[in-house]
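Practice problem: predict the structure.
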Amino acid sequence: MRVLITGASGFIGQSLIKYLLGINCEIFNLGSSEVKNSTHFLLKSPSDKKAINDAILEIKPDYVFHLAGSAIRSLNIEQIFTVNTFYCDYLLRAIDKADLGYHTKVVVVGSAAEYGSIEPSQLPISENLPCMPNTLYGMSKLAQTQTALAWQKPKKALVVVRPFNVIGPNMPSHIALGNFVEQIQSIANNGVLMTGNLDSSRDFIAVSDVSRLMWQLIHTEEAYGEVFNLCSGIATRMDKVVDYVLMLSNRGIKVKTESGRSIKGETKIHYGDNTKLQSVIGEYKFSTWEDTLLDVMQNDTKK
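Answer:
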């Protein structure tokens, strides 16, 4: 099985590679940098259509996992739509150009940010909720979803997933929990953990579950042409999560809250509905956030 991954060097990409190696897939990485355990195809820019076309034609992938994207707030509208929307379009067009439209199975990774601001009455967030993104990131990801579903309409094998708060070993520091773990890792014994407001609640899902679920969905014909939330369906308070991580660290660390670290207008409680997901793949036992964070902190001690 030949699998092409974009964004393979990222957090979810690394977990997916680990999972795919365990089921004997041959992995190809389309991106700017080489990634361990994959064959690299250089892509200097997501707007390089020739490089994308050439890679698809040479690899002839059985599966494509389009994970690439950016949530960097400093990007202008052209930059963020190039990465988060146009890149997907170029990739899908390349699949058609290589006459692989009805051979290659595709997973496109969207975001819960596509839903926009959420009122308490709209919880839990289901895929039927009208999307009203309020950030360029959410808008560009929604445009990607719409592009992907339009490509799939002639009954091609494509699934769109919207992961919620993904956690696990090697979390990036640009997400809150990843930043907290990085701070804790830098403290030898005693110190201070700087946080924003911790009275919010979030829906956490293990990165290992995201990898397994994407693989299950792309092998489920009923899932083709659909959007699925990848979420636990449970909201957990951030202060509870931080207390647990501090307990696991076994260090004398105190928490200091800085208002500047909180995002203005942030939704206080945010969690998804995974009913549609489990109705298609069957009942799924999600990893608990406690076990996942235990794995994170044990991974820390091995470094």
